[in-house]
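Protocol step 4 of 6: record predicted structures for both targets in the notebook before any analysis. Target 1:
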Amino acid sequence: MQVNTQTYTTQPWFALLKAAAETMQRKALAQLLGVSAPQISQVLNGTGRYGSGQASTQKLAAKVLHNLGRYECPHLSEQQGSSIVIDASACRGFAHRKAPTGSPRDMQHWQACNTCPHKAHTAAPQARAVVPRKQKNVS
């Protein structure tokens, strides 16, 4: 069977995923993205339904961009007077923390993050409830 991975391996999100897979274990990467480790392996190796083009990588691409991507921070850019780009984990750290009460500057940043369009994209993945499979009748 010929592997048809040309559709997604040239995309920017795939380069982010590949770079992350070189620096961390696939299991940890899968947990960060909220997907399974076999899915990460199949996408990176171009095997399974991803390699044949039967499975869509659209949802995974969005998760990669929102967890490993980079964003222009409107608040920091305004403060510096030039474009400031931060990675998704830094954005998540600013936007999804408790309100900082010790510093007016940090409070302003936190308030700006609550109105930022990137906040929803950088939210940590929510764990899905485990649904047990139906038991087969063995008679």
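Target 2:
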Amino acid sequence: MAQADKVPAEGLRFECTQCGECCTARGEYAYVYLNAEEVERLADFTGVSIPVFKRERTFRDEEGWRQLRFEGDRCFFLDSETNACSVYEARPIQCRTFPFWNSMIDRGNWSEDALRLCEGLGRGRLYSVEEIHKRMVEMDESEED
């Protein structure tokens, strides 16, 4: 469950620098989970059928979750020259809500792990508690069975 009380009253700053780190594997962590709606949206956006998209761009993990395939250590949809997402308009909830995840915020600030991952934390636009909470809830709800 999202916890807005984890966020300071003034909110948190974040600015995407397009470094690509959030779309790159970190050790064994290389996961972008997809629900059925996201698969459909991405298949449509990329102009392939759902079965083809599933077969060529996703896999099911050992627990049955559908995930995007990575190419080497990068998300398949991360442009290697620009570090831009080639499916930005159709990107999954996990990507849309980053970095406003419960696991990234600790005691009113960005966690140490989050700060090591993303150079854009603490800079740029100030996101309000309401904006952050909305994204946290969206992420949490996407994880429910």
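Step 5 preliminary note on target 2. The longest strand covers residues 12-14. The chain has five helices and nine strands.
Proceed to step 6 after PI sign-off.
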